Amino acid sequence: RLFNIWKQAMTGISESVINAYRILPLIFYFILPEELRK
What we know:
- The chain has one domain (1-36).
- Helix content is 95%, strand content 0%.
- It has one helix spanning 2-37.
Protein backbone atom coordinates (compact mmCIF):
# COMPACT_ATOMS: atom_id res chain seq x y z
CA ARG A 1 0.00 0.00 0.00
CA LEU A 2 2.75 2.40 0.93
CA PHE A 3 4.69 1.29 -2.14
CA ASN A 4 1.73 2.21 -4.38
CA ILE A 5 1.65 5.73 -2.94
CA TRP A 6 5.41 6.07 -3.43
CA LYS A 7 5.14 4.78 -6.99
CA GLN A 8 2.37 7.29 -7.77
CA ALA A 9 4.46 10.09 -6.28
CA MET A 10 7.49 9.09 -8.39
CA THR A 11 5.33 8.93 -11.52
CA GLY A 12 3.93 12.39 -10.78
CA ILE A 13 7.40 13.82 -10.21
CA SER A 14 8.82 12.37 -13.42
CA GLU A 15 5.81 13.63 -15.38
CA SER A 16 6.26 17.15 -14.04
CA VAL A 17 9.99 16.96 -14.85
CA ILE A 18 9.14 15.96 -18.44
CA ASN A 19 6.63 18.83 -18.64
CA ALA A 20 9.26 21.23 -17.27
CA TYR A 21 11.75 20.14 -19.95
CA ARG A 22 9.05 20.73 -22.60
CA ILE A 23 8.27 24.20 -21.25
CA LEU A 24 11.87 25.34 -20.56
CA PRO A 25 12.82 25.79 -24.26
CA LEU A 26 9.69 27.92 -24.72
CA ILE A 27 10.61 30.05 -21.71
CA PHE A 28 14.17 30.51 -22.98
CA TYR A 29 12.85 31.25 -26.48
CA PHE A 30 10.71 34.11 -25.13
CA ILE A 31 13.05 35.42 -22.39
CA LEU A 32 16.46 35.23 -24.06
CA PRO A 33 15.63 37.52 -27.02
CA GLU A 34 14.49 40.14 -24.49
CA GLU A 35 17.82 39.84 -22.65
CA LEU A 36 19.81 40.01 -25.89
CA ARG A 37 18.08 43.21 -27.02
CA LYS A 38 19.25 45.14 -23.95
